Every structure is written in structure tokens, then in C-alpha cells.
Amino acid sequence: MKKYSFYIIALLILLIIAGVAGYKFWYKPPVSFEKELSVENIQTISKITIDNFQNKHLVLEKTNGVWMVNGKYEARPELLQMILNTLQRQTVLAPVPKTAHDNVVRELLAEYIKVNVYEEGEAEPIKTFYVGGATTDNKASYMLLEKDGKAAERPVMVYLPSHSGYLTPVYADLNEENWRNRIVFSFTSSEVQSLELNYLQQPQNSFRIERLGTDSFAVNPLSEEFRINDTYLQKYIRQYLDFYASVALETFDNGNKGKDTIVHTTPYCLMTAKLNNGKTQRLRLHYMPINERSQSVTDANGMPLKYDAEHYYVALNDGKDLAIAQYYVFGKLLRSYKDFYYKPVQ
User: Mean per-residue pLDDT for 283-293?
Assistant: First the structure.
């Protein structure tokens, strides 16, 4: 018996090795299959179109180096980067099991999201695929590749390495408003020609900052009756202007039924920024009445508040757009004329 034990053990080891090799050969997709739905070099992508079963349509296209939404608005950089990163990293886990094939195909085609990816100068997409719902463990999405106008024979399960969720939400939001860039101010003190804040009901707080030289500015009241005969500090002005490096809206609110009324009421503050490159941005901040979204409805004394303490309405683009801004973001910008003057410790 001992004579054959060596051969038996050796045979078992060979069978195990053969089994592992066979598993890898038969069940693990080759690298080319794993990456069949990804785009290796996302820098070459110039356009992405997304359509769904509800006849909604979204076009993201790079124009003169700037990504635009439906040819109208600059795209939100964080959402754009998310979809590009997903296109580069999405990986095929495995084909859908034969037992689930028919159900997956039926559901995928009934409630599909179709994605076309184009490279610059190419009329035909370099990648076309359909996105379905989540797998049963919510860690991958069902997808179906299309080549030369024909759908692949088998849908696949696609996941994102180092990501715990499924991928469908990345491609599901086709709302143009959600894709619009929400950055309204993006500059530093070196780029400013002038900046004006006009508090219509508090004129003593209104001011205008104007460039005097390479690194110097003047601050003045909008009305001479409120002039402060003292020395303002340049460092206060520069620090304040640098607050405008990245100022974003919370969301656009163009579906608000009261939009026309809001944009035609007297604003709380008019903000006008003119840059050295000739660009001008104007915003109108309006108080937001207490509503169902308001978290605080009374003041520190328990008295009812008339306006939301944490949000403003913002009218921009000459009143064509209405948006919502957080006080947390805009509050640091809403300084007063007197804030630029040295105040000695008493």
C-alpha cells in the first residue's frame, strides 16, 4: 500500500491543478472580455449620448474643450468625471447565467438605458451598450453590448472594482437641470476688475470693490452718505475676493410655479462681478419664505420666522433661471462695507 501512496498523492495533486486550470479556462472571462464594455483612454472621448425607454435624451459633448449639456449649458464637472471614470473602469464580471438569460433580456429591453460613446472626429460610436437594473446582490448591473448594430447574444453582469454598489444610477439621470454646472463664481482676487454688492433695503451695507493696480483695490460705498473716513485694509479685500474661488448653487429650481413672481420681486442683494477677461456675472438674491423644506421655523425666542434662515432664491441669466443657494455657501460673501476697515480692540 505504501508503494502506491506516492502515486495516489501525486495523482490527486495533478487532478487539483487540472481542476483549477480548467475552472480558470472555462469560467473566468479573458481580459479582453472583461474590458469589452470599458473605454481605456477616456481622454479621446468627445461625446456621450444617453437615451432611455421613456424617450428621454441627454447629450454630453466636448465643444472647444468644454463639456456641454444638450448644447446649452456647461456640464457639472463632478457628474461628468463620474461617468467618464465609470466608462474607463467598468468591468465584466461574468455572462448572465443561462437560467436567468430570458428574464434579464426581457427586463433590460423593457426598461433600458442606451449609451453611445464617441471619439473626436468619429461619426459612429466606438462603444454602444444597454444598461439594465441591478443584480440580485446589488453589486453589479446587467448590461448588453451592441456591435455593428446588433446586440450581443448574452447580457453580462458589470461591476466597478473597489465600488460596493451597482452602476445603473450613473447612467440613469437624464434630467438636463441636474447636469448643469452649478458653479456661479469661480475666480480669485488676481482676476477681478470690480465687484459690487447692493443691498437694496440696507444701503449702508452696500459696497463696490475696484482694482487700482496689480495687487491693490479700492472699496467704496454705493452712496456717499455712508462713506467711512478711515483706512480700509488691502488684506481684508484680497481675503474676501478669494472667497469667490468656487461658489456653487444647491440646485436649479426652474420648475417652481412661483418663479415669475419671485424673479420680479425686489431682491435682498444684487451681486455683480466683472473680471479682467471681460466676463460679467450678475446674481439676484431673494429671501425664501418659510416652506415645507425649511428646517428652522422659529427664532431663538420661539417666534415664527418669515424667511428660511438657511436658503436663498437666486435669479440669474437675466431672470431666465431660478435656483436655490445655501446660506452656508453664500453667507461668507454677504459682507458689509464696514467690514473692510480696521477695528481696534477696545
Answer: 86
Is 172 among the domain residues? Answer: yes
Average pLDDT over residues 4-15: 58
Task: Give the residue numbers spanning the domain of 53.
Answer: 31-179
175 and 190: one domain? no
What distance in Å separates the CA atoms of residue 26 and residue 40, rounded to the nearest whole number?
25
Look at residue 137 and give its three-state secondary structure: coil
* Residue 297: pLDDT over 90: no
In a domain, 22, yes or no: no
- AA letter at 199: Y
Task: Mean pLDDT check: name the lowest of 6-10, 68-72, 325-329.
Answer: 6-10
User: pLDDT, tens digit, for every residue of 217-262?
Assistant: 999 999 999 999 998 999 999 999 999 999 999 999 999 999 999 9
229 in the same domain as 128: no
54 domain residue, yes or no: yes
Domain boundary among 158, 179, 200: 179
3-state helix, strand and coil shares in percent for the chain, rounded to the nearest 5: 30, 35, 35
Q: What are phi and psi of 284, to 5 degrees?
A: -120, 115
294, 321: one domain: yes
Q: Is residue 62 part of a domain?
A: yes
pLDDT tens track for 13-55: 655 555 544 444 444 444 456 788 999 999 999 999 999 999 9
Same domain, 175 and 188: no
| Residues 311 and 298 reside in one and the same domain | yes
| Number of domains the chain contains | 2
Q: Where are the beta strands (DSSP E) in the chain?
A: 45-52, 57-63, 66-69, 73-74, 91-95, 113-119, 127-134, 141-147, 150-151, 156-159, 183-185, 192-198, 207-213, 216-221, 247-248, 251-252, 269-275, 280-289, 307-316, 321-326
Given 140, 161, 179, which residue is the final one in a domain? 179
Residue 30: predicted pLDDT: 43
CA gap 42, 62 in Å, rounded: 12
Q: Are 163 and 197 within 8 A, CB to CB?
A: no
**d(C-alpha 111, C-alpha 95), whole Å:** 20
CA 294 to the chain's CA centroid: 24
